[in-house]
Write a structure and sequence with these properties.
- By secondary structure, the chain is mainly β.
- About 0% of the residues lie in helices and about 45% in strands.
- The strands form four sheets. The chain has a four-stranded antiparallel sheet with strand order 4-5-6-7, with no helix packed on it. A four-stranded antiparallel sheet has the order 8-9-10-11, with no helix packed on it.
Amino acid sequence: TPTQTPTPTRTPDFHYHTFLPYLRGNAGVAPQIDRAVRVNTTANTLTIGGVTVDTGRAPFIFVEDRAAGVLYVGTGGDGIVAHRLSDGAELTRITLPGLNLPIAMTLDEATHRLYVIYLLTPKYHNVAAIDGKTWLIAATLQGNPLRPLSDMSALSIERGRLVLSGIGGRVEGDAGTLK
């Protein structure tokens, strides 16, 4: 009788709605940890570089803008909270349209613009570009019936272009206009 070779189990590169490890500038790709990070899920806190901030209820993701001195924490259903890196003080809260649930974040270090994939509805994801100085949404790429973006769960900046990736493949666009 013929034998069937078992298919090896693939470890996912990123996860929906789970804590993503500290990633300098990118969420959803292999981490480069260059300083100590401690997560306390009981107290809902994150300690980075000796500064502790409240993460709200888990799960959460985070991105650090060292040049601007800001730590962005994307929380489960509570949007994004910007903290000052020097003392952990809350600077502002950024509310995302729809379900207010960030999936992935990345930072363009040259422009200090924060890019976020978030749930608009259970069926559609959106991408927002948030200005790092005003903390307002500067541009939005909307999911729709032809391109729901629901399979996109990671993003990065490559050569000035925004790259979305996920189960459905890879989508590139202009980082300034999200087109």
